[in-house]
TrEMBL record:
Record-linked InterPro entries: DUF2878
Name of the protein in its database record: DUF2878 domain-containing protein
Entries under PROSITE patterns matching the protein: PROKAR_LIPOPROTEIN
Pfam families in the cross-refs: DUF2878
């Protein structure tokens, strides 16, 4: 199996574990990350990128939560850990199966917007996330944000590749 195919499969397993298992299946994400770092990437090469994707995505989503665009069913200041781990999983793809989206920038924007609709739409459909301002409006906004964020994450990837730890 090619590394990019394995990377995509690991991402999908981790993403499904986050959505279907919430906090109960986060151990699957840990296993996915461990397999990724052992078989595909390395902490030396990808560590800063993984942490950056985790923090950047979590901060943006937590900001949207504070604005009232997201409702995870309980009063909270930050997004749930399973949602933050989705961002960590996105970080695992940037040097591998999603590298083809890095250039031209519009490719990353298009893929980011589509993935946002899929991921947040699935979270809404599964009842993990409510969108108080309406699904269409909020999903359109989140798609627009992801259309900006995925090229920015690729920018982090380029920066870190040019300046290794």
């Amino acid at each position: 199996m090619s590394r990019n195919l394995l990377n995509a499969l690991l991402f999908l397993i981790g993403w499904l574990a986050c959505l279907l298992g919430g906090g109960d299946w986060l151990w699957v994400v840990a296993v996915v990350l461990l397999v990724h770092l052992m078989r595909i990437g390395s902490w030396q090469r990808e560590g800063k990128l993984l942490v950056s994707a985790f923090l950047f995505g979590s901060a943006v989503d937590s900001f949207l939560l504070q604005l009232g665009l997201f409702d995870f069913g309980e009063a909270r200041q930050l997004i749930p850990l399973w949602q933050a781990f989705v961002w960590l999983l996105v970080g695992t793809t940037l040097y591998h199966c999603m590298e083809w989206t890095a250039a031209p920038w519009w490719r990353a924007s298009l893929v980011g917007a589509c993935f946002a609709l899929l991921s947040y739409g699935a979270s809404t459909w599964l009842g993990l996330l409510r969108l108080p301002f309406g699904e269409a409006t909020t999903l359109a906004l989140v798609a627009l944000l992801w259309a900006i964020m995925l090229p920015l994450l690729h920018g982090f990837a380029r920066l870190y590749a040019a300046r290794p730890m």
